[in-house]
Specification:
This protein has a five-stranded antiparallel sheet with strand order 1-2-3-5-4, covered by helices on one side. Helices cover 22% and strands 22% of the residues. A hairpin with a 3-residue loop joins strand 1 and strand 2. Bound molecules: adenosine monophosphate and zinc ion.
């Protein structure tokens, strides 16, 4: 069995609060939300970090953005705005090594991020 947390959620081995799913993408609520809306959007394929992307992964990364657009619309935050964040490696704050896009919304966002 995989020891990747997000692969386990994908496979139903641990529970996830799933908000969107298609053939290539899964999205679920973050267990420790940093904003009123905090959703993680992942490729179903295990890819550890952005550094591990291969040429064939370009399409699925586009699908993450397409899913983000759809989810933001469904959550009613498209117009007020939302932030999409992907941390790459520990120095940037990555703690789960399966690529994910954070969708954050529902509060004012400052820049630069901490
Ligand atoms: P990052 O630090 O960018 O790797 O983000 C990992 C995110 O995964 C954090 O925001 C965590 O709160 C979140 N997380 C950790 N475990 C779970 C889980 N079981 N279900 C949902 N989100 C999780
Ligand atoms: Zn994984």
């Amino acid at each position: 069995m995989t020891d990747c947390l997000f692969c386990k959620i994908r496979d139903g081995d641990i529970p996830g609060d799933i908000v969107f799913e298609d053939d290539h993408v899964l999205a679920f609520n973050d267990v420790n939300p940093q904003a009123p809306v905090h959703i993680l959007i992942i490729p179903k394929k295990h890819i550890s970090t952005i550094n591990d992307l291969e040429d064939g992964d370009v399409q699925v990364m586009g699908k993450l953005f397409a899913a983000a657009k759809k989810i933001a619309h469904e959550k009613g935050v498209s117009e007020e705005g939302y932030r999409l964040v992907t941390n790459c490696n520990a120095g940037a704050g990555q703690t789960v090594f399966h690529i994910h896009m954070h969708l954050l919304a529902g509060r004012a966002m400052s820049w630069p991020p901490g």
